[in-house]
Amino acid sequence: MEHMTETHRHLLQFIMKEGYLSKKKLNDTLDNYKVQHEYKGRDRVDEDFTRTINNAIGPMHLAIKAMVHPRSKDIYFAIINEQDDEISKLATQYNAHEVQLFKQILNAIVENENSSITTTDAVNLRDNKSMNIEETEKVLNSFAKDGWIEKKKDEVWFGIRTLLELRMYLLNEFEVDTQDL
Q: What are the pLDDT tens digits along the chain (181 aa)?
């Protein structure tokens, strides 16, 4: 079993900073770190490379997971919290109204046979007392920037972070397996 190197640690920190990354961007980053740290190990991020990191972060109930994006077919990586407890549910940068909006968006996407909703529908899911339209649009843009949803033209669907990080939630709450999307 390979031990964590400085390159592993730097790559782990980069994934934590970015939230999620495509395999191409991760490999480009690995190439840069290899030159910077004279790392002679693996040429590409592969199962052995991520397994080494996962062995180190596993005791903290974290893991690097990969998934093929259902639309672009690119491979993406993210760090997943594998412990579903009350503390992890509180670990978010979003306030309670924004989290509620996000849950309503997830529900609406699941209920739609196209696995997407319009941007207008997403905005209309807000609690009118807590968010106006402009604030809601900013939150939607933040969700998109952070990879929780994807927006293209007037369509909103699950983002890669939702598919990776909330797989068990979607399976338990809605009986939706993200692998089937």
A: 578 888 888 889 989 999 899 999 988 888 887 788 776 666 677 788 889 999 999 999 899 999 998 888 999 999 988 877 665 665 678 998 999 999 999 999 999 988 899 999 999 999 888 999 999 999 999 999 999 999 998 999 999 999 988 888 888 888 877 666 6
Token match 């990586």: residue?
Answer: 77
Whole-angstrom Cα Rg for the chain: 18
Q: What is the dihedral of CA 50, 52, 56, 59, to 10 degrees?
A: 70
- Select from 83, 105, 129 the last residue of a domain: 83
Q: Which domain holds residue 159?
A: 92-175
Indicate if 71 and 113 belong to the same structural domain: no
Cβ-proximal residues to 16 (8 Å cutoff; 6+ apart), any chain: 79
pTM for the complete prediction? 0.82
